[in-house]
Amino acid sequence: MTSQISFLMCPPDHYDVDYVINPWMEGNIHKSSRDRAVEQWEQLHHILKKHAIVDLVKPQKGWPDMVFTANAGLVLGKTVVLSRFLHKERQGEEPYFKQWFEENGYTVHELPKDLPFEGAGDALLDREGRWLWAGYGFRSELDAHPYLAKWLDIEVLSLRLIDERFYHLDTCFCPLKNGYLLYYPSAFDSYSNRLIEMRVTQQKRIAIAEADAVNFACNAVNIDHIVVMNKTSEDLKAHLADAGFQVIETPLNEFLKAGGAAKCLTLRVTEPVREEVHANVSVESRILRIEGHLLDSGLINRALDLIIDNGGSFQVLNFLLGEQRQSTSAAEVKVSAPSHEVMESIITYLIDLGAVDLPEDERDAKLEAVTEDGVAPDDFYVTTIYPTEVRLNGEWVKVQNQRMDGALAITQTPNGVLAQCKILRNLEVGDHVVVDVQGIRTIRKTESREQRNSQEFSFMSAGVSSERRVELVVEQVAWELRKIRDTGGKVVVTAGPVVIHTGGGDHLAQLMREGYVQALLAGNAIAVHDIEQAIMGTSLGMDMQRGIAVRGGHRHHLKVINTICRYGSIAKAVEAGVIQSGVMYECVRNHIPFCLAGSIRDDGPLPDTQMDLIKAQTEYAELLQGADMVLMLSSMLHSIGVGNMTPAGVKIVCVDINPAVVTKLSDRGSIESVGVVTDVGLFLSLLVQQLDNLTSPYIFKAG
Ligand SMILES: NC(=O)c1ccc[n+]([C@@H]2O[C@H](COP(=O)([O-])OP(=O)(O)OC[C@H]3O[C@@H](n4cnc5c(N)ncnc54)[C@H](O)[C@@H]3O)[C@@H](O)[C@H]2O)c1
């Protein structure tokens, strides 16, 4: 023994793998050898006794994991925060450890009953005593961290564990003397890795590879320059030697079967207090109210998953279940996050999910003035496609011009306060912009299972349709188109040149002729290839009748561009009788407004193509106003642009041969959008056929 450091250990008299509460235990029930375990434990005990004092707590029958004393509690000075085990399989250890601490003169703090925290397994002091690293994600709750800060008067840095093999912080993280840190970065989420990198310089961080991590190299005991562990690679040993540490390996594989090694088998009970260090914790909690068809629409699951996936934790404080099938439910959920930054991102996601407000904490939105045209304050709230309300002077005000990726600008007008979505470049000095996430809510249509199943677009909510469902989708789109046309609604089409190449041009032209399309948003290419087909019978040099390449056909599209340039515009070429059919012809003849937005790859361009993209975006947005449906036909570029400008509530049908494009475009989290993975030519021909078959005008379904 060379120092005054003391450890608490518990002999493995009753040690065994009796149950499965972590992935290491799986397949190992009663597979560990008691004799070998005793031998390995004694070897560790022997090594530690050479360098420190080791106290023992009496093992208790029926509590096989008591051997892992790291989970007895967390000690700092003469204060201990007792563990509250998550699993009932270990909860029986609590009174024995409590008794030992009390008998040895410690002040014992106990957490509320429903707040799990597994002691020094999930909370590790920086070896210089500057702060406490505390883990959460599997065994300990984030909400325990503020208690640790308060009772131990120390700064707590919360780290989220994301790999269930490393379910306790001490399985993948080991602060060492002189500010060094041995750790396995992949066990943590990116926010936690950033936090670690902010606190520990690169020279002091010893990041280990998976092979060492699964040998529990981080589950090590550090006494001055000695590091005791189960097993290490030569590389890691050399790295530690460079940092001034001597590794002592001692096999502990019998304990690995239960998910523990050297550190788990010990609890350091002498941890000096640094007088100048005081409590500080950045954990934030907020109580949110979520309402809707929480169970049958899966809203509550989505909300809780979002909280966890984004680095927070939650507690459902109460849940009011709607008793009738049609009535909604309400839940009050306490959300905790390791920092304000993480809390903001969680709340942003929850706002997107639906009406979320803070019952005890109703506050107005925070506003900040725009000080430079076209630039928002740093912390501005980024808008979504969902109808949004913002709380100003105690009143919820509906936001105008809803769109994605804008800022919420608030202006005082003679008629009252105006809240509207503005894209950043349109912000002006004098505007006030909503910052942070308070006082904002989105109104989502409540969707019960029944509604999902009974609406016309019902089955489409299943998301992307596969080939065999295409016909069914087409039938429903046809009904929808007929209904919109017959009720004076608006359908906007966005389309790429593939429509023409696949022979869909004639069908799209027919839809236009028959009044099913009220605006076209596209690029240079579809217009060029459509006119090429109208004038020369080819599309990109291919004969559209015979499906073969025409000699010199690759020049056709340039000749066409030249012809339209001579006439000055597509409309003038139509008037002159040069263009007599096709999509663009129908646009001109039927007064269907169109915008052709330019791009870097455009040949020509046509005189009609708007090469000023800011103007093109504005024209797109104007043409989208009041749309009931957007038909997106095989143009990723233009469809993504349109998707961002289209508020929720507008039906979207996205047709593309690539499932990834369809998923991206139709994933708007609402029942109003559907993706169809198929050839666009085939889709359009089926659609036209279906519409021809619909003899009677649209009849509203019952209900
Ligand atoms: N000659 C020209 O001027 C010229 C030529 C090509 C493109 N462009 C311009 O480039 C920009 C992007 O063009 P884009 O919209 O064609 O490309 P894009 O890559 O944005 O989208 C094409 C989409 O069509 C899909 N697709 C391919 N074959 C399909 C099929 N048979 N059925 C259904 N979907 C199919 C692809 O998966 C892809 O998502 C546009 O602005 C366009 O005008 C100009």
| DSSP strand content | 15-25%
Compute the average pLDDT: 90
Number of helices: 22
Q: Which percent bin holds the helix content?
A: 25-40%
Count of structural domains:
4
Bound molecules: nicotinamide-adenine-dinucleotide
Could you describe the largest sheet, including whether it forms a barrel?
8 strands, parallel
CATH topology of the largest domain: L-arginine/glycine Amidinotransferase, Chain A
SSE-based structural type? alpha/beta
Taking all Cα atoms into account, the compactness measure Rg is 33 Å
Q: Kindly provide the name of the CATH class of the largest domain.
A: Alpha Beta
The CATH superfamily label of the largest domain reads L-arginine/glycine Amidinotransferase, Chain A
Low-confidence stretches: 452-463, 698-703
How is the largest sheet built, in terms of strand order? Answer: 28-37-36-35-29-30-33-34
Number of beta strands: 37
Which architecture of the largest domain would the CATH scheme give at its second level? 5-stranded Propeller
Distance between the termini: 83 Å
Shape from CA axes?
A: elongated
